[in-house]
Amino acid sequence: MRKVDWRIIIGVGIVGVVCLVWLLVTGGLIWAALGEADREAITTAIGPRIALLVVMWAISLVAVGLVLRQLIAYFMTAPARLAEEAQVLLGTDVKRRLVAQGSVENRRLTDLFNQLVEQREALRSEMDVRVQEASRNTEMEKSRLAALMSELTKSVVVCNLDGRILLYNNRARMQFRALSKVPGVAGGAELVGLGRSIYSVFDRKLVTHALENIQHRLQRGAASPSAQFVTTTQAGQLLRVQMAPVRAVQSPDGAADIAVSNDLTGFVLMLDNITREFEADSEKDRVLYSLTEGSRAALANAQAAVEVLEYPDIEAEMRERLLHVIREEIQGLGKRIDEMQTSSTNNLRSRWPLEDMLGADFIEAAVRRIETSLPVRAEWDAVDTSLWLKVESFSLLQALVHLSSRLNIECGVDTVQLRLAENAQRAQLDLLWTPQTPDIKAMMNWELEQIRSGSETLSLTVQDVLTRHGGDSWYERDADGVRAFFRFLLPLAAPQEELASATFLRNESRPEYYDFDLFQSSEQSRSLEDRLLTELTYTVFDTETTGLNPAGGDEIIQVGAVRIVNGKLLQQEFFDQLVDPKRTIPAETIPIHGIKPEMVKGQPTIGQVLPAFHTFAQDTVLVAHNAAFDMRCLQVKEKATGIVFDHPVLDTLLLSAVLHPNQESHRLEAIAERFNVTVIGRHTALGDSIVTAEVFLKLIPLLAEKGILTLRQAREEAQKTFYARLKY
């Protein structure tokens, strides 16, 4: 579809009208000066040939149009293109010479621009050399950081307070991909990435609880607080997570020293996949249980038979029967041992790791949680601040909140107290209240109810939580009979000394995947439509298909995508997956995309690929070249897959037309050439995605120069272009 140049049509129309008016006026004057005989002679001569005059007039307009087209291209379009290309050089870091076109003056101006560009690039090169010299030490620090992070045996992830990932090492990348529900699709790339939310893997409540504990310890003066929790991922993996804070750095004006404040800017997570470890421990438990409880009866029967056999006057028939019993029991034991050696480890009982926590910190957290969640006032009663507990604090707090809620609803209790003391090498935690009625029947089974947290009902009961801690609980009254309480017996931990940060070795490192600028982001500050283009996270994608008619049966055979975070193209975070279309690939399309039928055979279907790609693109703006086609390919699969891509969409084809309306072509290759972007892997989904992403990054500063700063403005301007009429 070629864009119509209305300037030519309007120009030809004006010239045609002017010529026609001039001919009519001239003819009228001549007609008025002629006599009657002359008029009749002219009418007789010209009348039958008037159509010829009209044809010649039309032919002259065609000639005028051709001439006008050349003049516009020579004197108007060429300078306009020069201005657009010069704007590209001015607004981006593109390095290339402009091609001279049009008039002599325009060619001289092009040469002048090229000279200015050469001078600018020379100045840039000199400046780059100086910057590199000044930043050499910083780069050395970063390289050391990268080397250390790569060699760490633990997975490390750093997040800002919004839960957005801003650093991770390669081990974390591999571990997160192993946690994917569909690791066979694009290698599980949808879970890990800069700018992604950590809450796609971890429960937000767990992370928030750990952060609250750390914040409280910081306020109490701890130099290096940390927290630990265990969680189960969507893929059924068991992770042990240790959290440490990232604290704000303060440098007083004019001071050389840098101070670390107690204000959090983010947190560090160190991850261990302990699934296999716990499976092994659970199998040991099962074997031990089978050997003890399962063999107890057999051993008792054999022992009884042996004792009877010791009598000297036992009859021969009885002796044989007792020997038979002994043989059966021994054979049964042997068979049971053989079965245990070959049995599977399904339906395992899992242990739950407990963290060491100062008792006073737990009481403080419980008071805050109860008062925040319920219309109940919580108070300290008598707390031994020297006690350390070994607890899984998240579930234990939920149990306390559940019991407090039941007291409030069933018994009208509006105030509870918490008491902590040591009793026979165990921690004794009491939840106290003043009963309004002596009837306690209503609360006898609360410990066996499923815990309710707000509108959620958990699978755990209070008794389950205590079993997890190897503890116990009961209902009791104080000696004075005024107050009642639930008593929990919990394990104690060895007292810990919170060391100052100076006692730790200072390791210098830089990870492979990081963007510390994300510490400053705030995802909740503005709506997506009104946010700046420079602040958004993008998924730039492309599809390869069996044909150009997705509504008519053509299928997706490849999906490729890369991410742009904080203005940076993350080529290492990509989505690249072939798709089995479950139909033939037309032979005439194979030279275009290079995908042969044997390449897609056995690959995941579109029903498996689209959910993973949807997760990969979560919370981002979709970007594509000629996005109308790619979005149509996704749209026709909504009913079959149940996956709806309702993301905001930007199209580099339309944005190029907004910025450079005078260019002859807005094909991806033409735009890439204009921006000096190297095209690699054209007509592969991932290759086109990378080229589109690089082009898009060049377009953003040029859009800003035209006053197009937000997503809303970019979408509105794109819809005004001629190419927005393309439909599929």
UniProtKB/TrEMBL annotation:
E.C. number(s) listed in UniProt: 2.7.7.7
Stored InterPro entries: DnaQ, Ribonucl_H, RNaseH-like_sf, RNaseH_sf
Family matches, as CDD domains: DEDDh (cd06127)
TM region positions: 12-34, 46-68
Lineage of the organism: Bacteria, Pseudomonadati, Pseudomonadota, Gammaproteobacteria, Thiotrichales
Domain of life according to the entry: Bacteria
UniProt domain Exonuclease: residue ranges: 537-705
Keywords: Exonuclease, Hydrolase, Membrane, Nuclease, Transmembrane, Transmembrane helix
Catalytic activity: DNA(n) + a 2'-deoxyribonucleoside 5'-triphosphate = DNA(n+1) + diphosphate
Annotated SMART domains: EXOIII
Full protein name: DNA-directed DNA polymerase
Pfam annotation, one family: RNase_T
UniProt-listed Gene3D superfamilies: PAS domain, Ribonuclease H-like superfamily/Ribonuclease H
